[in-house]
Specification:
The chain has 9 helices and 6 strands. It is mainly α.
C-alpha cells in the first residue's frame, strides 16, 4: 500500500484500525490516517509499513527510530571530532601571539602565550582519544597537526626567545639557536619518542620550559649555553622524561604537581623571585619532583 498509515492502541485492546469515521490528510506527499476514537496518533514512513490483511497494517517504526538515532549520534561524533582538531589548531594562534610579543620586545607576554599553548597541547591528546578522532576522521591526521604546532611553540619561537632575551656568550647566540632547532628536528622525527609507559625517551625538545627557567634564573651566559648543549645531547639519549598527562603511574599526583609548577612559574614570570618567595619555593620543589621522576624511571630501565 502506497499510503502512509498510523495505528493506535487502546488501553487493554489489541492493535486495530477503524476503517469508519477516519479522515485522510495529504501533506508533503504523506498521508496521515486519524482515528478519533484512539488515544493518540502515530506516524510511520512508507518503508516501515507491512501490509497484512485488508484494512490492517503493522507498523515497524522501531527501525526508523533506530536509524534516526544512529544518524544523530554520527553527526554529534563528527562535531566533537572536528572540535578537538579546532582546539588543537588554536595552538598556532597562541604561537602567533607569542611571536608578535617577541617582536614587540615583550618577553613576559611571549612566555605567557607559550604557556597557554603548552596547556592546550597537554590536554588535546586526551580529548582526541576520548572522542576517537582517528576512527571518526581517518582522512585528517591530527598527529601531523599537533607536531607542526608543537615545533612552532616548543622549539622555534622559544629558540628565538633565547636568542633575543637570554644572555649568552658573545658570538654564541646564533649557534645556540641552531643547536636548539636541529636537535628538535631529530626529536620530532624520532619514531621511538615515547616508551611503552608513555615517558618521553630523550629530552622532548621542551625549549619553552627551558626558556622559562633561563629567564627566571638569569644564569651566567656560559652556564646557559652549556645547559643548552647538555639538553640537546640528552635528546639522543635513552633518558626518560615524564609526561604528566600520559603516564598512568602516579597520574593524579603528577597532574597536581604540574598545575602547581604552572602557577608558580606564571607568578615568577610576572614578578620576580624576590617578590614571590612562596612561588620560588613551590617552583623549586616541583622541579625537584620532576627531575626525581626522570632519574628514577631511567634508573629502573638501566638497572
Amino acid at each position: 500500500m502506497a499510503a502512509i498509515s498510523a495505528t493506535c492502541v487502546a488501553t487493554g485492546a489489541q492493535d486495530t484500525i477503524l476503517l469508519a469515521r477516519t479522515r485522510h490528510v495529504q501533506m508533503a506527499g504523506l498521508r496521515i490516517r486519524w482515528v478519533p476514537t484512539c488515544s493518540r496518533v502515530c506516524f510511520f514512513t512508507h518503508s516501515s509499513i507491512h501490509q497484512t490483511a485488508r484494512g490492517q497494517h503493522v507498523p515497524n517504526g522501531v527501525n526508523v527510530v533506530q536509524s534516526l538515532s544512529s544518524h544523530t549520534e554520527s553527526r554529534a561524533s563528527l562535531y566533537k571530532a572536528w572540535s578537538v582538531h579546532v582546539f588543537t589548531a588554536s595552538g598556532v594562534l597562541l604561537g602567533t601571539m607569542a611571536l608578535l610579543s617577541l617582536i614587540d620586545n615583550n618577553p613576559v607576554a611571549c612566555l605567557l602565550w607559550l604557556g597557554a599553548a603548552m596547556m592546550i597541547d597537554g590536554v588535546d591528546g586526551t580529548l582526541a582519544r576520548k572522542y576517537e578522532v582517528k576512527t571518526i576522521l581517518p582522512h585528517f591526521d591530527g598527529s601531523t597537526l599537533d607536531m607542526v604546532i608543537d615545533y612552532l611553540t616548543w622549539a622555534f619561537i622559544p629558540a628565538l626567545f633565547i636568542y633575543y632575551f637570554i644572555d649568552l656568550p658573545s658570538n654564541f647566540s646564533l649557534l645556540a639557536v641552531f643547536i636548539i632547532l636541529l636537535s628538535s628536528m631529530f626529536c620530532f622525527c624520532n619514531t621511538n619518542m615515547k616508551s611503552q609507559d608513555n615517558y618521553f625517551v630523550g629530552f622532548p625538545a621542551a625549549w619553552n620550559i627551558a626558556a622559562a627557567y633561563f629567564y627566571i634564573l638569569d644564569l651566567p651566559p656560559f652556564i646557559t649555553f652549556a645547559s643548552i648543549v647538555f639538553l640537546a645531547i640528552l635528546t639522543v639519549t635513552k633518558m626518560k622524561f615524564l609526561h604528566p598527562f600520559r603516564v598512568r603511574q602516579f597520574m593524579p599526583l603528577n597532574i597536581a604537581i604540574t598545575l602547581v609548577w604552572c602557577a608558580c612559574t606564571t607568578s615568577l614570570v610576572l614578578t620576580s623571585p624576590e617578590h614571590a618567595a612562596w612561588a620560588l619555593w613551590g617552583w623549586g620543589i616541583a622541579s625537584v619532583y620532576f627531575m626525581g621522576m626522570c632519574v628514577w624511571r631511567t634508573a629502573q630501565e638501566a638497572f
